[in-house]
Every structure is written in C-alpha cells, then in structure tokens.
Specification:
The chain is α+β, with helices and mostly antiparallel strands. It has a domain of 137 residues. It contains 2 helices and 23 strands. It has a 23-stranded mixed β-sheet that branches. The radius of gyration is 33 Å and the shape is elongated. The N and C termini lie far apart (127 Å). The mean pLDDT is 81.
Length: 417
C-alpha cells in the first residue's frame, strides 16, 4: 500500500508540472501569436502593394485568410481596369501565397514569400474584344523589364510561381490558340529565371488548318537581363491535317540577338537546326541525314496518306534553306537521295536530287533514278514562274519493270503555251 501511495504522489506531481508547463506555454504564446498576426497583416499589405506596383493597376480580392499549412489563401483576385478600360482586366480566381514563418520576422515580411500558386484557373482572350487587356500585358512586361534592369525589384529574391490545371484560349487575327491541362513552375532568383512547363497545345487556323501537340514540355532558364536563354522543348506527338510527327526534342538557345533551335536527345540519324534573327527578319534551316527512315517519325494524313509507302526508304543528304521575311525571298541548296522501299514498286530503285535556287527558278545539277540495270538522269533548270523545264535527259541502259534496257539522250526545252 505504501508503494501505491508513493506512485500516486509521483503521478500527481507530474500532472501538476505538465499543467504548469501548459499554462506557461500558453501565456508565452499569446504575445508570439500577436506578433505573428501583426507580421501576417504586414505581409498581406506588402503583397497587395507589390502586386499593384508590379502590374501598374489596382487589384481587389474577396478574402485573404491564413492557413495552418503556412500559406495565405487569396480568393476572388482581380486586376482592375483604369478609365477607358473594362472594369476587370483579369479575374485570376484563387491564389495561394506560401511563406516561411521564420522570415516573417525579418525587416521585410514580403521576403517570407516562397511560392505563389494558381490553381484551376482559365483565361480567355480575344484580340478584338480584349485589346485593353493585351495592351496591359505588353505594358506590364515592358515596364517590369525596365524596372528590373534598373534594379527596382519588388518581389522576393527567391520566389516560385506555380500553376496547376490551367487553361488558356487566345483568339488571334488568323486563328485560335489553346493550352489545356497546363502546368508550370517559374523560379525567380539569382541571375536567372528557371521555367518548367507542360500541357496540351493547339492552333486552329481560320481556313481550317490545325496543329496539335499533346504532352509537350519546356524546361530551361533565361537571364534576368534577357541577354541569353536556353530551353529544352520535348514534343512526343504533333498532329496536323497533313501529317503526324512523333518523338521530337529540340534545344533552343538565345544569345541576345538570334534564336538557335537544334534537334537533340535521340538516336535518329539526322541533324536539324533552325536559326532565327528577329532583327534581320531572317530564318535559316540546315539538315544533315544519313540513312534516316522518315516513316519512323512521320505519318502522312488525309489525301497525302497514299505517299506513306514512299517514306519507308533510307534517306541521306544535306541541305540549307534561307528565308527573308522583309523581302519575301527564299533560297535553297539541297543534295538528297532516297533508297525506295515502297512495296508497290516492283524492284529497288534509288532517287537522288541536287538542286539550288529560289522561288523563281531551280538549277538542277542532277535528278536521277537508279535501277538495278541503269539510270535515268536529268540535268538543267526549272522555270518555277512558267513551270517549264530546260535541260538534258539521259537514259543509260535504264530498265524498269520489264521495260528496257533503254539508252538515249534528249534535250528538253519547253515554252508555256
């Protein structure tokens, strides 16, 4: 019995100590909670002010409430228009502003922000109806670029902006652009901004043409001064009315003037590059291939589907295409051959072409069809304006499908009549 009484006194003492500890902790937490509440209010105020400065417009919201999960839940966020604009330029809906509790007590509570998250939002824009919104976006981007160059940054040094299950529709002058199931993460900090984006993208031209890229993703970064950028673009599947192309990955580099896009990250026997100079308004495309089978990455659709058997052969060659958007001038230089594997062709043949020219004429060094017994060869020029050829046509022991062998030469000259 004495042992039982001793244990009882020990348990009672422990309970009393626990009760005292709870009371002391509660008393101590009261001023701490008040301090957190004050800092939370400062964070709210600074966040709204910084957003208004950044956008150059007033913003409104239906509610801002803190969460035990360390974020501010902002509902009904709207960007308000100025006189002459619509009342509401953008209706963002719901935004979660995540923060670091410890950084709330720094000199600038806004530095406690770690992430802004947009969820289940949709944006619908029309180039005629929403001209004021588009002007606002352009002005905001331009103003923020100048502000950032001057060092006047109103956002935390390190911040992540994230969007989940977003949708975007833009009706442009010539067609409709769409992005669905869009997710993105933009990380701002240091000397560069990082981007990760994925979703389904599409374009529908007013004449009925369409392009759709499902499951596309973009990952990379660009400098804060926008002097250089590198992005990796992965497109598992692109569909148009004419063809479907699969498993394409490109690397985009920007050096402050030109945009260089190159095919990377696969074992396809082809090198492909695209160089765009926006200032000079020029585009250059280069390719080099050795034994590539086009059917492995491309399938023609619609009326062109009948040509799919011609994509089964190995293709080798190289070429360059140049286009000037200002002068509308196009030039090209191609050397390419295809070992035909079309099941409908009765015997193996190889087709080869070497040509250079522009939109007016094509100088054909050779266009040949090689069979098992000989070849047919044309060399000369093609007037693309009048669509008439000039040159020499040679048959050298050429036979095909039981015809021949044929040896002969002709001079080809025609006038458009």
């Amino acid at each position: 019995m004495k042992q039982t009484g001793g244990f009882g006194r020990i348990h009672l003492a422990q309970l009393l100590m626990l009760a005292v500890l709870i009371v002391v902790t509660a008393i101590a937490l009261v001023p701490l909670q008040r301090a957190i509440d004050v800092r939370m209010q400062q964070l709210k105020d600074e966040l709204i002010t910084a957003t208004e400065v950044r956008l150059g417009r007033r913003v409104s919201y239906s509610s801002i409430s803190p969460s035990i999960f360390r974020f501010l839940d902002i509902r009904g966020l709207r960007v308000l228009g100025e006189p002459g604009e619509r009342d509401v330029l953008l209706d963002v809906g719901r935004v979660k502003a995540h923060y670091n509790v410890l950084k709330l007590f720094s000199d600038h509570p806004l530095d406690a922000l770690t992430e802004l998250r947009l969820e289940n939002s949709s944006i619908d824009l029309d180039y005629r109806r929403d001209q004021d919104v588009l002007d606002f976006v352009r002005q905001t981007v331009s103003a923020n670029g100048a502000r950032q160059a001057a060092g006047a940054v109103e956002i935390p040094l390190e911040l992540r902006i994230r969007g989940d299950n977003m949708s975007l529709r833009y009706q442009g002058p010539t067609g409709e652009y769409r992005a669905q199931n869009l997710g993105f993460v933009v990380s701002v900090g240091g000397e560069a901004t990082a981007l990760s984006l994925n979703g389904n993208f599409g374009y529908l031209h007013q004449d009925g043409g369409r392009v759709r890229a499902d499951g596309a993703s973009v990952d990379g970064s660009w400098s804060d001064a926008a002097s250089h950028a590198r992005l990796l673009i992965d497109v598992p599947r692109v569909q148009t009315a004419a063809a479907t192309v699969v498993n394409q990955t490109f690397q985009l580099d920007y050096d402050g003037r030109t945009i260089d896009v190159r095919k990377v990250r696969d074992r396809s026997p082809i090198d492909l590059s695209l160089i765009i100079d926006p200032i000079a308004a020029t585009v250059q495309i280069d390719f080099l291939t050795d034994g590539m089978i086009p059917a492995n990455v491309m399938e023609l659709q619609g009326p062109l589907a009948v040509f799919n058997p011609w994509l089964l052969g190995e293709t080798s060659g190289q070429g360059r295409l140049n286009y000037n958007h200002t002068t509308r001038e196009l030039s090209y230089n191609l050397r390419i051959s295809n070992r035909v594997r079309n099941p409908e062709v009765s015997e193996p043949i190889t087709v080869a072409l070497a040509v250079e020219g522009d939109t007016r004429s094509a100088d054909i060094e050779y266009f040949s069809v090689q069979s098992s017994q000989g070849q047919a060869l044309f060399g000369g020029a093609l007037d693309l304006v009048n669509r008439v050829p000039h040159g020499d046509l040679l048959f050298d022991r050429f036979s095909y499908d039981g015809i021949g062998p044929l040896s002969a030469s002709f001079q080809v000259s025609a006038e458009r009549g």
